[in-house]
Amino acid sequence: MGKAKGTVIFDSDACKGCGLCISVCPVNILALDTSSVNNKGYHPATAIEPEKCIGCANCATICPDTVITVYRTMEE
Amino acid sequence: MAVVFQKTKGLTDKPFSYCPGCTHGIIHRLVAESLEELGLLDEVIGVAPVGCSVFAYEFFNCDMHEAAHGRAPAVATGIKRVHPDHPVFTYQGDGDLASIGTAEIVHVAHRGEKITTIFVNNAIYGMTGGQMAPTTLVGQKATTAPYGRDAALCGNPIRISEMLATIDGAVFVERVAVNTPANIRKAKKAIKRAFEVQLQGLGFGIVEVLSTCPTNWGLTPVESLEWLEKNMIPYYPLGNFKSPKEEK
Ligand SMILES: Cc1ncc(C[n+]2csc(CCOP(=O)(O)OP(=O)(O)O)c2C)c(N)n1
Ligand code: SF4
User: Domain count of chain B?
Assistant: First the structure.
């Protein structure tokens, strides 16, 4: 069995910066991007260490605004 | 790369009007995913309530009807009786269903109407600014209970699932919560099951979903999930109260 490698893509302008995704990420790689403000006026959530993502989809499962799409590949 | 999670076709592109972190959005998605997976999007007819989810008809990618406050079960009854071959659901808050619409929900269950109700219990009137609901917990503050709900004055919070489970016409009754990814997955299973029960024509089904209202609870979205777990789940226990006999 290889290791699961995930990719999370954020529809940043749909994000309301609620932070629920950040609170459920098991590898703690999500944060609000305080250096940017989206169309709605919020700091959107983003992956700060995207290479560590395991593709569990916890973040997308709890996101109330379906901001996140999750992909997964198996590495050797 | 395999897609593990993407937005369901059961939702329109319209952004939700809900406050940041409000779990109405999660519950919408679970309903929409269930309808998509069961292949019902082209035939299902939903009934939207009055409350924060009053615009549900803009968000669900299926036929929708609006109802007056609390009357969604009555409207859904009419729709189902005219269109018995179409799945019909209502989406209702706790002010809508457990207060002004109590008569409608009790009698829709009593008549065993073959519809599915998604009951969003956030223990408060959200849309109107945080007044006490019948579901507000003892001690919980609301604009109309500034010192917290007093049981001596207002009675204890109403447990809708337990009450409806005593009615013969209600064949599927389950309470779930959307406070963790694991509970959200369980909530999805219950909602999907409730629609399957309707398709089998067995009777009335309801899924009560414990939800948050960060804005009117005066908590952050993450604190709200914790408050739900610590305060709501002990009073409103999760679990299945009733399901059709053959699957037990
Ligand atoms: C006949 C009638 N009475 C009162 C109102 C005012 N009103 C609008 S929403 C609402 C309460 C909604 O609370 P809930 O059903 O819990 O939904 P939430 O907003 O919390 O999702 C009330 C009392 C109304 N619109 N119509
Ligand atoms: S007022 Fe409460 S229930 Fe309504 S959208 Fe905001 S958080 Fe959700």
Answer: 1
